Amino acid sequence: MMLRINTNGGLYVVIFFGGILLWPLFPLMGPTWTGAPLPETSTVILPVIINTVINVLIYQRCSSPALSYYEGLSAMAGRFIGGCVNLTVVYIFFVILLFHALAGLLVLVGLFMGEGWTEKRFQDLAVRVTSRP
Questions:
Q1: Residue whose C-alpha is closest to residue 88's, from 17, 13, 1, 4
Q2: Rounded to two decimals, what is the model's pTM?
Q3: Which residue intervals of 1-133 are DSSP H helices?
Q4: Where along the chain do its domains lie?
Q5: Which of 102, 93, 94, 47 is nearest to 69 (CA)?
Q6: Does the pLDDT value for residue 48 go beyond 70?
């Protein structure tokens, strides 16, 4: 019996956010055999805090009672999943990054237009992407 896991893009979104939130920690995990000094912890913590605040703002402003940000991003990523995981993993993170950047732009404009405007535009984006032929 073969185990089949239907991610529908959700697993890729979780991995994407793990990478985007923790990328400042990667220099701390680097090889020390090069002789380069490791960065100070205080210079690494600030980018982690800034990334977290920005991503929470995007999540909060794009989420609505009808569609959360995670569900919308998962559905859009799920639209681009191919039949082979080896090929999908090559491009899916760039697709998610594109939609995340578009959501960031929506939030930036939505700071002046209002939270309802941002929620509506993100829902429209998700519907347009997932319903294309």
A1: 13
A2: 0.79
A3: 10-22, 41-62, 69-79, 85-113, 115-130
A4: 10-25+38-130
A5: 102
A6: yes
